[in-house]
Design goal:
With 546 residues, the chain is of the alpha/beta class. It has helices spanning 20-26, 41-53, 59-63, 75-83, 104-124, 141-144, 179-188, 196-206, 213-225, 238-253, 255-271, 304-310, 323-330, 340-356, 374-383, 395-403, 407-429, 445-473, 475-488, 495-498, 502-508, 510-528, and strands at 10-14, 89-95, 128-134, 146-151, 154-159, 231-234, 284-290, 296-300, 316-318, 333-338, 363-365, 368-372, 431-433, 439-441.
């Protein structure tokens, strides 16, 4: 049986969650810190036409090298070509590198952008291409060097040791000698997977001699996304850096104005009752310059003008608040598909764009999912659980353990609770006349309440001891829960934000990506207002950032 013949996971659409600002921005009436989100197919067509009119018709000629030599002849290349020359627009999303491609959400972001591009193309009649911005210029090695895989009922953390000084972009950080062993462990997490190409492309990307963290990430993304129609742009490529250079130098020349605009926006965000996603650092611009160690350092505002005049071409880079402005300046991006943390900081991005006289980028909430695999679904059915029951640590285990108590023990404990509650109440009701002949408590109420609390605590402790004993005997149920929890809420974190995607792809093949794309379509249609009757996504635990 091939991977494509296997029963696929159920793709469950989730809310992306996030903080109060992200939730408000993703709602129907975003706060006034954001570019206006179109609310109908007609409004999307108007925005698309405006973006197309305000973008360079030669953007693809300029950036073609940054999309890689593998683009030619692929579905991604064909979609880009149709959108170039002023004919169409782009939907973008992105992520910094993650070990072996990173967690599920990197791929659900890509599928969400693809589905939105499809929906906008249907709604506007314009060519729309999806682009994944691979942020290989990011220097967060702590995040880029870690991924997780569920093996049975355990969550195994895979980690690469540092191979470069702090602050070096991932495009220049070499993969370590420990990566092959981590790759072998990752493969164990897929079991007897049938889709061998997943491992072939991952091996070619991550075990190639002399490969960097960022380079391996880009190679893997391109191998798997380009056939689906998603182009991958390397943010560290010289072509990208050259195209971004004028915006970065302008941000340095206007660093004082940008700082002032951000301070005003941050104050407005706080006055509206929200938290600022990216705190200001006094005296620093939003531009990075590379030092002699190749590490990135923020340019001081006091040095901004001379750096703008003298920095070598390609040596500058944007921080998180400037990057969306740069992207919109060099690409005809109609919308950026954003996670909750990104949506929150887009409230500040608008102020940066306005200070620079640049177009204000538009963010839309990304599609989010949980992959409920057949064997995990069987466990949940067998144990009478829903996926959300595993969101709270130990709650499901405690419930099953209590249910495993012998009926007579459970009944006796319940009777004992009732007897204590009723007995305490009768004591509390016992009165005696006071000196004036009025009814008064025989014993102070506080003493009776204290006794009640003490007895309830002792009963809770006794019940937990019985439950623990039952839990030890219910080993099969606990093993089932360990497998389900590792698959859905590893270490208490939503699957999408924790588990590596490659084992899923290896088990189910391209049909899994097709199922994700199909599930993302309802979300995309809601964003384009092409399917007003689509079911709303079910609520989920808040996601932290992406």
């Amino acid at each position: 049986m091939s991977a494509s013949d296997a029963a696929l996971p159920r793709v469950i659409t989730e809310s992306i969650g996030g903080g109060a600002l992200a939730r408000a921005a993703a709602g129907e009436a975003p706060p006034p810190f954001y570019a206006a989100r179109p609310s109908s197919a007609g409004e999307w067509a108007e925005r698309a036409a405006d973006v197309r009119r305000r973008s360079s018709p030669t953007w693809l000629d300029t950036l073609r090298p940054a999309f890689g030599a593998s683009l030619g002849g692929t579905a991604a290349g064909e979609r880009l070509a149709r959108s170039a020359g002023g004919a169409g627009i782009l939907v973008t999303t992105g992520q910094q590198p993650g070990l072996f491609g990173g967690p599920v959400y990197s791929w659900s972001k890509a599928m969400g952008a693809l589905a939105l591009a499809d929906a906008l193309e249907r709604a506007t009649g314009m060519p729309v291409a999806p682009v994944f911005w691979a942020a290989t210029d990011d220097s967060d090695f702590a995040e880029a060097s870690v991924t997780r895989v569920a093996i049975g009922g355990e969550v195994v953390t895979l980690r690469q040791a540092p191979t470069a000084p702090d602050g070096v972009p991932m495009a220049e950080v070499p993969l370590g000698d420990d990566v092959p062993a981590a790759f072998d462990t990752l493969m164990q997490g897929a079991g007897s997977a049938a889709f061998a190409r997943a491992w072939d492309v991952a091996r070619a990307a991550y075990l190639a001699p002399g490969q960097s963290v960022g380079g391996a990430y880009v190679a893997l993304l391109r191998a798997l996304l380009e056939p689906l129609g998603v182009a991958v742009l390397d943010a560290s490529h010289p072509a990208t850096r050259a195209a971004a250079d004028p915006v970065l130098r302008e941000a340095l020349r206007q660093a004082t104005d940008v700082e002032r605009a951000l301070a005003e926006r941050d104050a407005a965000i706080r006055d509206a009752g929200y938290s600022v996603q990216v705190p200001a650092v006094a005296g620093l611009s939003l531009v990075f310059a590379s030092d002699a160690r190749r590490a990135k350092t923020r340019v001081k505002i006091s040095d901004a003008a001379p750096v703008a005049a003298s920095a070598p071409p390609g040596s500058l880079g944007p921080n998180v608040l400037l990057r969306p402005v740069v992207e919109r300046a060099i690409l005809p991006t109609v919308a950026y598909v954003a996670g909750p943390g990104e949506i929150a900081y887009f409230a500040q991005v608008g102020a940066v764009a306005a200070a620079l006289g640049a177009d204000v980028p538009l963010s839309v909430p990304r599609w989010s999912c949980t992959l409920l695999e057949p064997h995990v679904a069987r466990i949940l059915t067998r144990r009478g659980l829903e996926p959300s029951d595993l969101a709270q640590p130990h709650a499901a285990e405690g419930r099953l353990a209590r249910e495993a108590l012998p009926a007579d023990v459970a009944a006796t404990l319940a009777q004992l609770r009732t007897a204590v509650r009723n007995g305490i109440q009768r004591l509390a009701d016992a009165d005696r006349p006071d000196a004036n002949g009025r009814a008064a408590p025989l014993v102070p109420t506080a003493a009776v309440d204290g006794a009640r609390r003490s007895l309830e605590v002792r009963l809770d402790r006794l019940e937990r001891r019985y439950a623990a004993a039952a839990k030890r005997t219910a080993t099969e149920a606990m093993r089932d829960l360990a497998v389900a929890r590792a698959a859905l809420y590893p270490e208490g974190i939503r699957q999408e934000r924790s588990l590596n995607f490659l084992p899923f792809l290896a088990r189910y093949g391209p049909a899994l990506l097709a199922a994700m794309r199909e599930s993302a379509t309802a979300h995309a249609n809601r964003l384009v207002a092409a399917d007003e009757h689509a079911a709303a996504p079910r609520p989920a635990q808040p996601a932290a950032s992406r």
